[in-house]
Amino acid sequence: MIRDYSDHAANERTFLAWLRTGIAVIAFGFVIEKFNLFALTLLNGTDLGEKVHAQLERYSGPFGFGAGHAFIAVGIAAILIATIRFVHTGKLPTIRRRRAT
Asked: End-to-end CA distance of the chain, in Å?
């Protein structure tokens, strides 16, 4: 049996929540990247009106590329920091509570 299981379980739940958040942020970064690629393909592959062409140019600019990469980097950083904190917290000594009698 794991000593101080409730502390360990709380640490693990927190780690898994941060892991889930990091994966969601990375997935959102991929969605932004794919939309940027879709907009560029649509822009170059079809003959649209001038107004639609201008909107697609605005959507597929460097912001989409940079924002997608930034979200992916932030998600990876969140996972790395969460892993470091999980290991560090797991190694901390626990304080034993005195039972009131």
From this structure: 25
